[in-house]
């Protein structure tokens, strides 16, 4: 799939502003971005649910705005928030979607894999939020698609169901299916994606494999630890090398960046001991995808 120069406006808002993406066959691309960055709009244009105001989209060699009918049997879509006729039973819904496909997977098998066999006769509106999500995923996969769009596939899922979705995405990739997913869970992108694209204000701000994105531009490492929230770290900072910086980026979560050497680690633990606190989850390593994401898109709420 290839997207270039994509533009979508809503009144005075430019939701997508010249976006370019490339999803290679049989790979997983994670589209990340803060709330309102333009992820869902992009996915909806690529999957043929919205028209673009500019740019080009090529999905499996076709333009979704022109060849929606031809594309529909070849792609699977799990929209954000799912959706179905409220009164339809879970099993009926999946059977209905399967009946539109040339060579569908067995709906019963898929219900079983997704842990929905026991609610096959339950009306959609009576399913729990997580069950609705899983049914929506089943509907996206039942037609054996060549390419799947998953808009926040694990939002609202419990840890077991999230792992199951991760396994399914891994299995799709092994089968040569291309996957475009959006997520706010950085760990999910690190775990699943071959390629990560971070967007903000409808534009690409960074892209690469999770490893490329988290590789340090210098040899500066990070030291993280958890301790009592709100500690005054100015004294600690004064005792560290000049290029070291310490931030409490969430209550009780401290992040020290700069030249981290054994003396710095020792200074941190000694200082914590002097404060009478235990430095928990002390970890020295490269920056995480979440660090990169926050550096690029800022820390303020959208
Ligand atoms: N139908 C619409 N009418 C008006 N504005 C819209 C419409 N759809 C999206 N927008 C606006 O376009 C921008 C991008 O929205 P979009 O839903 O694509 O963001 P997102 O990255 O998917 O966000 P989230 O992470 O919250 O799901 C937002 O400012 C949103 O308010």
From TrEMBL:
GO biological process, one term: response to antibiotic
Annotated ranges, domain ABC transporter: 1-226
Keyword Transferase: no
Single GO MF descriptor: ATP binding
Subcellular localization(s) per the UniProt record: Cell membrane
Name of the protein: ABC transporter
Bilayer topology: Peripheral membrane protein
UniProt keywords, alphabetically: Antibiotic resistance, ATP-binding, Cell membrane, Membrane, Nucleotide-binding, Translocase, Transport
Cellular component annotations (GO), alphabetically ordered: plasma membrane
First-listed, main subcellular location of the protein, grouped into a coarse class: membrane
Organism: Actinophytocola xinjiangensis
InterPro entries listed in its UniProt record: AAA+_ATPase, ABC_transporter-like_ATP-bd, ABC_transporter-like_CS, ABC_transporter_ATP-binding, P-loop_NTPase
Protein origin, superkingdom: Bacteria
A Pfam family matched in the record: ABC_tran
Keyword Transcription among UniProt keywords: no
């Amino acid at each position: 799939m290839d997207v270039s120069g994509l533009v979508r406006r809503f009144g005075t808002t430019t939701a997508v502003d010249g976006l370019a993406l490339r999803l290679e066959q049989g790979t997983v691309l994670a589209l990340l971005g803060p709330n309102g960055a333009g992820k869902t709009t992009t996915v909806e244009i690529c999957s043929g649910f919205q028209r673009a105001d500019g740019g080009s989209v090529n999905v499996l060699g076709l333009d979704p705005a022109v060849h929606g009918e031809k594309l529909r049997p070849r792609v699977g879509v799990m929209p954000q928030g799912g959706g179905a006729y409220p009164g339809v039973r879970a099993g009926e819904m999946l059977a209905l979607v399967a009946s539109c496909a040339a060579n569908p997977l067995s709906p019963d098998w898929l219900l079983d894999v997704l842990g929905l066999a026991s609610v096959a006769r339950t009306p959609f509106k009576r399913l729990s939020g997580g069950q609705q999500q899983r049914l929506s995923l089943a509907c996206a996969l039942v037609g054996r698609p060549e390419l799947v769009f998953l808009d926040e596939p694990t939002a609202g899922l419990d840890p077991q169901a999230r792992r199951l979705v991760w396994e399914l995405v891994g299995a799709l990739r092994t089968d040569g299916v291309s996957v475009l997913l959006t997520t706010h869970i950085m760990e999910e992108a690190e775990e699943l994606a071959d390629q990560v694209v971070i967007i903000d204000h409808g534009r690409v701000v960074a892209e690469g494999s999770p490893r490329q994105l988290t590789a340090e531009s210098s040899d500066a490492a990070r030291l993280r630890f958890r301790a009592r929230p709100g500690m005054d770290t100015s004294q600690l900072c004064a005792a560290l090398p000049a290029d070291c910086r310490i931030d409490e980026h969430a209550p009780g979560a401290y992040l020290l960046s700069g030249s981290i050497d054994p003396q710095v680690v020792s200074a941190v633990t000694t200082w914590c001991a002097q404060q009478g606190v235990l430095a928990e989850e002390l970890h020295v390593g490269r920056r995480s995808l979440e660090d990169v994401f926050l550096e690029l898109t800022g820390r303020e709420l959208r």
